[in-house]
Amino acid sequence: MSKLTKNQKLALSKIEPGKVYSLQEASALVKEITTTKFDASVDIDVRLGVDPRKANQMVRGVVTLPNGTGKEVRVLVLCSSDKEEEAKEAGADYVGLDEYIEKIKGGWTDVDVIITMPAIMGKIGALGRILGPRGLMPNPKSGTVTNDIAAAVREVKAGKIDFRVDKTGIVHSTVGKVSFPADKIYENAREFVNNLIKLKPAAAKGTYVKSIFLSSTMSPSIKVDPRNMEEEK
Q: pLDDT tens digits for 30-40?
């Protein structure tokens, strides 16, 4: 096992052993324990009391973070020619159809979100084996298959994110940058967790939100008290 660096020891010293922090406290502390020279992402990991193997306990949704993610989201719009100008004006980084389908078939996936139209999905279905594992496959449930291309692009650029529980029952997401003020990190994290709570499957029994951890890129994790998250103000 490698030895801890001076900065890692300093970060760990600021986390009280055994303490469970409020989300507000954790949002401030994550800034203090981050020592990276770049603007690190702030990430949240929520363990849910669900069995993702069962369809009636799958948790998936979208949320628009009130303060955005702080990340420049690269958006590809696959659409008919009459929608191209609309997509470009809304801020899409790449717009087209057949040429981008061929690029993706060749292995190109240098984007964060792909938005398309219902009428185009027939052409995109063949890309599932490439886009699916990367979380890039457009989906009506996430709002990335729509005829209102402009609105979808603007929402994604403003901080709309897609999330789903993984096979271990954990939902991971970025909720901002360390450069954000603590209250902005808190507002984003609270919005994210509250959206998860609203999506609790009827089939899920027992404790739904089992644990919450907040961290930044390469920082230690801060354990957050999951109780009464709905009442966080």
A: 999 888 889 99
